[in-house]
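Input protein
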Amino acid sequence: MSHTQLCKGFKAIFGCTVFEYLRKERLSYARMLIEEKSVDLTWVAYESGFCSSSHFTAAFFKAYGIRPSEYRKSLIM
């Protein structure tokens, strides 16, 4: 199977590219860490596979419409 066939097959089954799927999984894991642990958000960023906390914050905001710090605060209230 070629790389192109694999990518097309993946998108046909999952409805997104491999990298989009991976980003969704990383963000889902990060969200779970924020909900379950009171750890530093920079640690959450690196633990979930992001290269920087600013990249993580931007991706989280794009996916969920709220910054990770605001999301954490909303859980407390």
User: Anything to note?
Assistant: The two ends are 51 Å apart (CA to CA).
